[in-house]
Fold this sequence. Notes:
This protein is an alpha+beta fold. It contains eight helices and eight strands. It is globular.
Amino acid sequence: MGRKWNNIKEKKASKDANTSRVYAKFGREIYVAAKQGEPDPESNQALKVVLERAKTYSVPKAIIDRAIEKAKGGSDETYDELRYEGFGPNGSMVIVDALTNNVNRTAAEVRAAFTKNGGNMGVSGSVAYMFDATAVLGVEDKTEEEVMEILLEADVDARDIVQEDDAVIVYAEPDQFHAVQEAFKQAGVTEFTTAELTMLAQNDVSLPEDSLTQFEKLVDTLEDLEDVRQVYHNVDLGE
């Protein structure tokens, strides 16, 4: 599957841990998911996915509850879900997902981030075809064989099952996210090290040191933008 998911997660965690910026982004994402359907994760699958991911990032319950209560309260605050595609140094590929209440502001900020860090914006579809939408769930205290048995018994398909450090990571089609999750829960597993719907590059590229430094600055700049929810790319950032 290319880059190890744990390495990706650890790099993000070391940068994002316990920051109000991350919590604010999750609060917005939870609010939007709750507004789009029932504010109950048992009947709102989109909300359920966001809440599972929030748990793996240790988002405080107070942040989660506040966002859901805001949605229940009938707030008229609205956000657009946007996707930008672009190229970083040496033709590297980047996808940026955003939630915004000001499309013009977000577009200008994302474009500036690319331009100032050796990249440029692309048109819709210029990059996404090189990525696969993927459900990624990770569990501890299980072997690959045990995970495979759990999924087989539940008649759930997975693209791949990989041991990565102390966790077993399941890669599956996006529409299998809840089926994989439910299979684990039926087997007594309720905690996940990772629970994401993400975009994984079909092929990773390595950059020379100077370009890699510039690329990392591009990703950091994008992730620091208030409206940016997720940044996906095809660059191997190393261990």
